[in-house]
Structure formats: C-alpha cells, structure tokens
Amino acid sequence: MPDIKIRQADFAEPVVRALLTEVLAELSQRYGGSGDDTPVAAEDFTAPHGAFFVADDGDSLVGCAAGAATAPTPN
Fold first, then answer.
1. Beta-carbon neighbour count of residue 9 at 10 Å?
2. Tens of pLDDT, residues 9-24
3. Residue 57 and residue 70: Cα distance in Å, rounded?
4. Helix (H, G, I), strand (E, B), or coil: what is residue 2?
5. CA-CA distance, 44 to 68, in Å (whole number)?
6. What is this structure's pTM?
7. What is the C-alpha separation between 23 and 15, in angstroms, rounded?
8. The dihedral of CA 54, 25, 28, 36: what is its sign?
9. Which domain of life, per UniProt (predicted)?
10. C-alpha–C-alpha distance, residues 44 and 16, integer Å
C-alpha cells in the first residue's frame, strides 16, 4: 500500500476540482440528485475562512476534507 500524505490544497486547483467532480458523481449515484446541493464558494475553504485538505498517494488524489468557519450561535 502506498504512503498517503495529507496536504492543504487550494480549492480551485484543477486536480482538486476533478476530484470533487468524481466525488459528487459517486454521491449522486448512491443517493440521487446532484450528490450535494449545498452551495459553497471557494472562499469558504480559504484562510482565514476555512481550509481544504486532500489525501495524495503520490500518483493521484484519493480523498478530501474541508472545514469552514461559521458564525457564532447566540446563547
């Protein structure tokens, strides 16, 4: 099994966009619809608003994860 490295990535990188297209196609096949109807913008996953990470096996991207800041919830 190859070593998988996690790295921060730019949401707009062509290889990242290709991975996301593949992921959404898989989700669509499994669950119907577009795969994800949640509207997002690249800025949501760019510092200081958030971050986007990919899992890279050296030959291709094999996974991804993202986090975005949210507004505080009032008590």
1. 19
2. 998 889 888 988 888 8
3. 31
4. coil
5. 6
6. 0.76
7. 12
8. positive
9. Bacteria
10. 15
User: How far apart are alpha carbons 43 and 22 in whole angstroms?
Assistant: 21
Q: Domain ranges in the chain?
A: 5-68
Give the Cα separation of 25 and 51 in Å (integer): 23
For every residue of 4-55, DSSP letters joined together read: -EEEE--TT-HHHHHHHHHHHHHHHHHH-TTS------GGGGSTTTEEEEEE
What distance in Å separates the CA atoms of residue 41 and residue 52, rounded to the nearest whole number? 12
Q: Which residues contact 42 (CB under 8 A, 6 or more apart)?
A: 11, 12
Tens digit of each residue's pLDDT (9 = 90 or more) over 30-53: 888 877 777 778 888 888 888 999
